[in-house]
Design a protein that fits this description.
The protein has 530 residues and is an alpha+beta fold. The protein has helices at residues 2-7, 11-17, 36-67, 186-201, 373-380, 384-396, 493-498, and strands at residues 73-82, 89-96, 103-112, 116-123, 128-146, 158-175, 208-211, 226-236, 249-254, 263-264, 275-284, 291-298, 306-314, 324-329, 345-354, 399-415, 428-434, 440-442, 453-462, 469-478, 481-491, 500-506, 514-529.
Length: 530
């Protein structure tokens, strides 16, 4: 009877009896419906699909192979391309809510292919090699969009398809009649090229559009919809990967993992709490599904870098026009949901600016933000008419935004500072430093207090507000020296946007402690070509 009762249980019954946090990581409740019927029909028609799709895929992917062709090769093309006799298996389907004028369907697919794919490669020294791509194993999710919906059969004007998610893609390379390892680095270069070509030709948000009914479907094509302004501020508590000394961390950031769209920070040597304060821009094509990925590596010199941890931010969680300041926990793998080991954190500032809303809010990283009306006149002509006519041309030039002003910092008080003296007390003071200009100030010492009150104000002349940062270090004054208690790090983005604000900052590097601050910005913007 007990077995029969379990057999009648639904997914909802299981979730009611046992909450999700108690399930092992390999238990997943799929939202997708089975597609046994589709797989049976696909197996029957696969020979015809193979013939039609092979030419379509070859035509689509081959230009991308040439675009990402390794520098050691003079030519990289398909000499043979067929999908083989084994049909893929669709393991599930779901409908995605995506507006009233379209139907979006996502289909999960597994495929252990026996494809016949041969690449004809040529090197600059005249060597020609046929390279076979074999043992292909693929798991992913395809997205089909039926849009627009119309009142004419088959009730939609076009179909767009894309690879929404690539869970696994394995393959091996073999030189026909030879050994690919005879040319050092060739196998890795070709594999990287193939993966980049797939990413740029069919991975979402890239999509292929197939018109069904006559009409203009240019609105379905991939278009940029906004800019993501990102500041990589710092990381803390990174895992030490080196036996001698400390790690040498750097960051790799991307929205689409393509070579020309990936950003890399500078390397900070021998540091587990690196400060970068570097600014990047990313073009966004679909804010509802795209996400930013940050990977922190340890630079190993001539050897391959070792991954320290990674994190991601869903762009749909960003409010347009508003700076989001986040600390993200680093994980080993973004696909593993229950990774609880602490690997450190990375600190980011993000600002999403959709196109067409320039008048709705201020983007401090935009070139126009740093120009006063007088500066536009001086830059573009002798009178206001010339300035207006030439403004568009001026702003299209490459510029470096320089925002100059006076930063007024009031250190109000601290709360619950940690005990560092044997007597259970502290004599704290705060050192204020501008990272770029290296200007310094410090508060007075407050004796015998873990909750000191200073109420002291300091002014800093800042020459480059968007690329400078304020570092506040809390120290304990001793008769024969001083003890470091912790620090707070602030970029100036928020105070530049808001003009003035108060905040309570957690002191980093301690178990407890907060600094209460008041910041005010008095701008004096300038403009400079780079």
């Amino acid at each position: 009877m007990t077995v029969a009762a379990f057999a009648r249980m639904t997914v909802e019954d299981s979730r009611t009896i046992l909450p999700a946090q108690f399930y092992p990581p390999w238990v997943v409740f799929s939202q997708r419906q089975k597609l046994t019927w589709l797989n049976q029909h696909l197996t029957k028609i696969w020979p015809f699909v193979n013939e039609a799709a092979s030419d379509l895929i070859k035509t689509s992917v081959e230009p991308m192979l040439e675009q990402y062709r390794p520098t050691i090769l003079s030519s990289l093309k398909f000499s043979k391309f067929t999908l083989g006799t084994v049909a893929p298996q669709f393991t599930g389907v779901c409908i995605v809510e995506d507006g009233a004028d379209s139907v979006t369907m996502e289909m999960e697919m597994q495929w252990d292919a026996n494809s016949s794919i041969i690449l004809d490669i040529k090197t600059y020294v005249g060597v020609s090699l046929p390279v076979q791509v074999k043992d292909i194993g693929f798991t992913g999710v395809f997205r089909l969009i039926f849009k627009p919906l119309v009142n004419e059969f088959p009730c939609f004007g076009a179909v767009s398809f894309s690879l929404r998610k690539k869970k696994k893609l394995d393959f091996t390379l073999k030189v026909i009649g030879g050994d690919i390892s005879t040319i050092p680095g060739l196998s890795d270069a070709i594999e990287s090229t193939i993966r980049d070509a797939i990413e740029d030709s069919i991975m979402w948000p890239v999509r292929k559009i197939i018109p069904i009914l006559p009409g203009d479907y240019s609105d379905l094509e991939l278009k940029p919809v906004g800019i993501l302004e990102l500041k990589l501020v710092q990381a803390r508590d990174l895992t030490n990967k080196d036996i001698v000394g400390k790690s040498d961390p750097y960051a790799v950031l991307f929205v689409r993992p393509l070579p020309d769209k990936t950003k890399k920070s500078k390397t900070i040597n021998n540091e587990l709490n690196p400060i970068w304060n570097e600014h990047y821009e990313f073009v966004i094509e679909d804010v509802t599904t795209q996400h930013l990925v940050v990977r922190i590596y340890d630079d190993e010199g001539v050897q391959a870098s070792e991954l320290n941890g990674c994190a991601q931010v869903q762009l749909r969680d960003l409010e347009p026009g508003k700076v989001k300041d986040v600390w993200l926990n680093l994980v080993k793998d973004l696909e593993i949901q229950r990774d609880t080991k602490y690997r450190g954190q990375v600190h980011l500032e993000l600002l999403y600016c959709p196109f067409g809303t320039e008048n709705g809010f201020t983007n401090p990283f935009a070139s126009k933000f740093s120009m006063t009306s007088l500066e536009k006149v001086l830059k573009s002509g002798a009178n206001g008419t010339d300035a207006i006519e030439n403004e568009k041309a001026v702003t299209q030039k490459k510029k470096e935004v320089i925002i100059r002003g006076v930063l007024s910092v009031t250190v109000i008080c601290a709360e619950d500072l940690p005990v560092v003296d044997l007597m259970g007390k502290a004599d704290p003071y705060v050192v204020l430093k501008m990272k770029k200009s290296e200007a310094r100030n410090k508060t007075r010492v407050v004796n015998d207090s873990l909750n000191p009150v200073w109420n002291q104000t300091f002014d800093f002349v800042v020459e480059d507000g968007l690329h400078d940062m304020l570092i506040l270090e809390v120290w304990d004054h001793d008769t024969f020296g001083k003890d470091y208690m912790g620090r707070c790090i602030l970029t100036l983005t928020r105070v530049i946007l808001e003009g003035e604000y108060k905040d309570s900052l957690q002191v980093e590097g301690t178990k407890s402690g907060k600094l209460n601050m008041h910041l005010k910005w008095m701008p004096q913007s300038i403009f400079r070509d780079s």
